[in-house]
Amino acid sequence: MTEPDRPAPRLRERKKARSRRALADAALRLFLERGYHAVTVAEIADAAEVSVPTLFSYFRSKEALLFDLEPEIAAGLVAAVSQRSPGRDVLDAVQEYLLSLPWAEPQQREQFEAFLALVHGTPALRAYWQQMWLRHADTLAVALAADRGLEAPDLRTRAVARFVVDAAMLVTLEPDPRAALADLLGLLRSGLDAAGLP
After folding, report:
1. Are the CB atoms for 171 and 95 separated by under 8 Å?
2. Distance in angstroms (rounded) separating the CA atoms of residues 32 and 87
3. Residue 153 CA, distance from chain mean position
4. 176 — phi, psi (to 5°)?
5. Percentage with pLDDT > 90 across the chain
6. HSE on the CB side for 10, CA within 13 Å?
7. Which parts of this chain does the entry mark as a DNA-binding region (predicted)?
8. Radius of gyration for the alpha carbons in the chain, expressed in angstroms and rounded
9. HSE of 137 in the Cβ direction (CA atoms, 13 Å)?
10. Long-range contacts: 24-31, Cβ < 8 Å, 24+?
């Protein structure tokens, strides 16, 4: 392809995002219809009109297809800490970000509950879900440590990050996850001074 024929970077990124979204949507639909183990990656790729190698260029495993927001959540947690306005409480910023995720949106609640039932009813997906949130805890701990001027997270920073992430996981099961998250982070807030966080 000659230089003038190359798609603009933004166009390429939009096409990649559309393909990624199509794969994730197809996987969720097929898993909900037939069950996780009854669906092959070839069927998902076919439903999204891409090849199997293309599927694996976007998702490293069959399980990962269901968690397409993983990179965005990691980036969002970092941004919530590092890009909050001066003087803003770090927990407020992280809580606001977490409440912007699909599980906290009332209009998406029914679909999320079907997703959650699938995850918790499938050992491979449940294991991926738990490991994903542990990775998010590590990401958040690094962001909190950097915010404090530390080169690496210390024990307290890791504990705070783990508590926040565990709270986010727990409240997804609650009828009112927004109120439940506010309640759990309120428990943590009183200990922030001792943890040395702003």
Report:
1. no
2. 44
3. 21
4. -125, 85
5. 70
6. 0
7. 40-59
8. 19
9. 21
10. 24/65, 24/66, 24/68, 27/65, 27/66, 28/66, 28/115, 31/66, 31/118
User: Judging by beta carbons within 10 Å of its beta carbon (0-12, 13-18, 19+), is residue 159 exposed, middle or buried?
Assistant: middle
pLDDT digits (tens, 9 = 90+) for 68-95: 999 999 999 999 999 999 989 899 999 9
Closest C-alpha to 101, from 10, 3, 191, 172: 172
Q: Which residues contact 198 (CB under 8 A, 6 or more apart)?
A: 89, 90, 147, 148, 192
Structure tokens at 150: 């530390």
Query: The tokens of 75 are what?
Result: 């980036």
Residue 155 tokens, joined: 């024990």
The model's pTM is 0.84
Question: To which residue do tokens 């909190």 refer?
Answer: 144
Length of the chain: 198
The two tokens of residue 74 are 């990691």
Please tell me the distance from the alpha carbon of residue 81 to that of residue 114, in angstroms, as a whole number.
31
**143: amino acid identity, one letter:** A
